[in-house]
């Protein structure tokens, strides 16, 4: 049973990313949601069938993305839903808080993890109380603000870590992944651009 779950989770990022990208592109030509779903599924099938060297394009994407964290999986699902329905999640306070936390976590984690800093914060995920305490504070704030999707997703990640449900023994890998960080950055770039566009211009002086 777990091998089947592992198989699906390992490929979930690639499936959702290919689907969301194709559906979003089809949105540019104003296709119906049903047709966007069809195009997304066709894109997944094409990625599976197109060979690149000894593997399919889909397998290359899977190997590049690996398994998503719980928040990363939720964010990918939201992007896929938005690509199909056109619904804007970036206007909601829960979405903004969740993606802001992902951006902040990635800024704190990845520069040190890849060697740009003398200190590697990735080690905090193996032991200690700093990362668990930070997650408790985020959970408490999420519950206070009734951000139940964030609370549930973090709980799934933490429980997965405690049960050693994944291949990693590091707590970081259950609450953030590189793709989720990049998607969160992209979401906030979109939010910032939309804020600038919507910013009211000062009224010009009236010429007599």
TrEMBL record:
This is Uncharacterized protein. The lineage of its organism: Bacteria, Pseudomonadati, Pseudomonadota, Alphaproteobacteria, Hyphomicrobiales. The chain crosses the membrane at residues 12-30, 37-58, 70-86, 98-117, 123-142, 147-166, 178-197. It comes from Hyphomicrobium denitrificans (strain ATCC 51888 / DSM 1869 / NCIMB 11706 / TK 0415). Keywords: Membrane, Transmembrane, Transmembrane helix.
């Amino acid at each position: 049973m777990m091998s089947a779950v592992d198989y699906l989770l390992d490929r979930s990022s690639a499936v959702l990313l290919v689907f969301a990208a194709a559906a979003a592109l089809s949105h540019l030509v104003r296709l119906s949601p049903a047709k966007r779903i069809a195009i997304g599924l066709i894109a997944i099938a094409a990625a599976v069938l197109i060979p690149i060297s000894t593997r399919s394009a889909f397998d290359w994407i899977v190997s590049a993305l690996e398994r998503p964290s719980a928040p990363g999986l939720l964010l990918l699902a939201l992007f896929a839903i938005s690509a199909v329905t056109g619904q804007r999640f970036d206007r909601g306070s829960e979405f903004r808080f969740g993606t802001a936390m992902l951006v902040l976590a990635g800024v704190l984690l990845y520069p040190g993890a890849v060697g740009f800093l003398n200190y590697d914060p990735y080690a905090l995920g193996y032991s200690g109380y700093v990362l668990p305490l930070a997650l408790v504070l985020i959970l408490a704030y999420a519950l206070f603000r009734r951000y139940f999707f964030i609370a549930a997703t973090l709980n799934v990640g933490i429980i997965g870590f405690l049960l050693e449900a994944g291949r990693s023994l590091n707590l970081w890998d259950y609450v953030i992944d590189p793709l989720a960080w990049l998607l969160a950055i992209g979401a906030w770039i979109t939010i910032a651009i939309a804020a600038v566009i919507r910013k009211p211009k000062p009224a010009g002086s009236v010429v007599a």
